[in-house]
Amino acid sequence: MMQSALRELLPDGSVRLTSGESAFVFARPTATVLVVTITGYDKGQFGTAALDEIGSVLRLGARVHLFVDARNAIGATVRVSEDWTGFLARHQAELQHVHVLVGSKMVELTVAIARHLSRTDRLMQIYSDPAIFEAQLETACKRRP
Q1: Closest listed residue to residue 133, CA positions, set 125, 142, 144
Q2: Following DSSP, what letter does each residue of 28-64 receive, concatenated?
Q3: What is the model's pLDDT at position 124?
Q4: Structure confidence at residue 3 as a pLDDT band (50, 70, 90)
Q5: What is the rounded average pLDDT of the residues 58-85?
Q6: 3-state class of 80 per DSSP?
Q7: 76-105 tens-digit pLDDT
Q8: How far is CA 56 from each of CA 32, 73, 79, 112, 131, rounded to the nearest angstrom?
Q9: Cβ distance 98 to 120 under 8 Å?
Q10: What tens digit of pLDDT does each residue of 7-28 get?
């Protein structure tokens, strides 16, 4: 199912991809922190656009702390999950740490499987408590590159 995703540059410099009721927002609070906020169900309607956005940040050189706020994500198809798994496996060297906030057991299980299959157990942390996730984000933003 390939719908087209609308890509917008927001006034604060963030990038938003939307397709139907689903969206990704990419924000760079610092040079070494990327925050990706996901809402809705990813059925593959974004194609490679979401991972391409992350990849474009990783190509800039410095290792990145990736924060994925998936508390409002409903889920993803198996194909989308496989794409994320492959991406994480290929880009481990460019990632300082991956922090994922989940809002449901289904999304938590999907992320845990991707973490295991991509062999990023030491690289990725899954959170269900938004306060802990936000504290980690604040700490990462204060670090010097």
Answers
A1: 125
A2: EEETTEEEEEEEEEESSTTTTHHHHHHHHHHTTSS-E
A3: 97
A4: low
A5: 94
A6: helix
A7: 999 999 999 999 999 999 999 999 999 999
A8: 13, 23, 22, 25, 29
A9: yes
A10: 999 999 999 999 999 999 999 9
Q: Are residues 103 and 114 in contact, defined by beta-carbon separation less than 8 angstroms? A: no
Q: Which residues contact 97 (CB under 8 A, 6 or more apart)?
A: 65, 66, 123, 124, 125, 140
CA-CA distance, 16 to 10, in Å (whole number)? Answer: 7
- Reference 47, options 17, 2, 12; nearest CA is 2
Q: Please report, rounded to a whole number, the percentage of residues in the chain having pLDDT higher than 90.
A: 92
What residue type is 133 in one-letter code? F
Secondary structure of residue 4 in the 3-state scheme:
coil
CA atoms within 13 A on the CB side of 56: 10
